[in-house]
């Protein structure tokens, strides 16, 4: 297990106060996060935080009659189990890996105990919870006020922010879940973005061809949550490779 704080890719781990990181380090466990691996189970106690180092987690809202839609992403900028910071052990929502990767597991009791006695640490993670709320709020705004073409561009940008490279391992089924629409509707919109020259789609993969164009297509439904994260965390969501 890596002990050097700078060796981690997760943004939250890298910006922890040095003293806090040193106290947490003995409890950090590097874990594989395969496709569909559950990070948070609906209505069941969450026993550990997982700081994602690579891959993509999806936060899913479910209705009483089992309708489901994605409400947010978690990548190397974040941690699963944000509801724990608000004092509740369970949530109706679920979080699982949509793109396989690896992460760092930390028993919830360890971090929650430290937060109780550290105002800077508590403020950091409450600020992170706030960024998650803004992401969800912007998703609701996008779903209500923007067309499918703009919304798909936004979701692809969010995935691109959290995954390495320009080739995103995203299936049409996943994109349909993200958008809350039928797969056929997503396929049509992908063809539109391809025709504009923003992306190139193949089976189970979307390649970002022109990110700037994609941002232009997304318009105002992308950028607010990302700016709020950078304002509060002091670092951008998107990992910049040296």
Outline the structure in words.
The structure is a single chain. With 242 residues, this protein is of the alpha+beta class. It has two domains: 5-142, Jelly Rolls, CATH 2.60.120; 145-231, Arc Repressor Mutant, subunit A, CATH 1.10.10. 43% of the residues lie in helices and 22% in strands. It has nine helices and eight strands. The chain has helices spanning 11-15, 18-24, 108-117, 119-145, 148-162, 172-179, 183-196, 211-218, 224-233; strands at 29-33, 38-40, 48-62, 68-74, 94-107, 167-168, 199-202, 205-208. The strands form two sheets. Strands 1, 2, 3, 4 and 5 form a five-stranded antiparallel beta sheet that branches. A three-stranded antiparallel beta sheet has the order 6-8-7. Helix 5 packs across helix 7. The longest helix has 27 residues, at 119-145. The chain starts with 10 loop residues before the first helix and ends in a 9-residue tail after the last helix. 34% of the residues are buried. The mean pLDDT is 94.
What is the number of independent domains? 2
* Biggest beta-sheet profile: 5 strands, antiparallel
Measured between the Cα atoms of the first and last residue, the distance is 23 Å
Q: Segments where pLDDT lies below 50 for 5+ residues?
A: none
Average pLDDT for all residues: 94
CATH architecture of the largest domain: Sandwich
Number of helices in the DSSP assignment? 9
Gyration radius (Cα, Å) is 18 Å
Helix fraction? 40-55%
Shape descriptor reads globular
What is the name of the CATH superfamily of the largest domain?
A: Jelly Rolls
Look at the helices and sheets and give the structural class.
alpha+beta
CATH class of the largest domain: Mainly Beta
Helix-strand sequence: HHEEEEEHHHEHHEEHH
Q: What's the β-strand tally?
A: 8
Strand content: 15-25%
């Amino acid at each position: 297990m890596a002990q050097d704080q700078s060796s981690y890719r997760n943004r939250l781990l890298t910006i922890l106060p040095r003293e806090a990181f040193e106290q947490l380090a003995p409890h950090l466990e590097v874990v594989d996060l395969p496709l569909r691996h559950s990070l948070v189970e609906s209505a069941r106690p969450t026993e550990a935080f997982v700081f994602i180092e690579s891959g993509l987690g999806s936060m899913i809202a479910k209705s009483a009659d089992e309708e489901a839609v994605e409400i947010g992403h978690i990548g190397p900028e974040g941690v699963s189990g944000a509801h724990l910071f608000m004092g509740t052990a369970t949530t109706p929502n679920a979080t699982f890996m949509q793109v396989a990767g690896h992460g760092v597991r930390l028993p919830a009791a360890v971090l929650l105990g430290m937060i109780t006695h550290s105002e800077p640490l508590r403020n950091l993670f409450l600020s992170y919870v706030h960024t998650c709320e803004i992401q969800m709020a912007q998703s609701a705004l996008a779903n209500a006020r923007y067309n499918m073409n703009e919304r798909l561009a936004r979701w692809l940008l969010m995935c691109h922010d959290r995954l390495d490279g320009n080739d995103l391992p995203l299936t049409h089924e996943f994109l349909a879940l993200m958008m809350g629409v039928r797969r056929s509707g997503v396929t049509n919109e992908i063809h539109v973005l391809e025709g504009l020259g923003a992306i190139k789609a193949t089976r189970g993969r979307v390649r970002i061809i022109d990110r700037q164009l994609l941002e232009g297509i997304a318009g105002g439904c992308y950028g607010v949550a990302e700016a709020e994260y950078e304002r509060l965390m002091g670092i951008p969501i998107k990992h910049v490779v040296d």
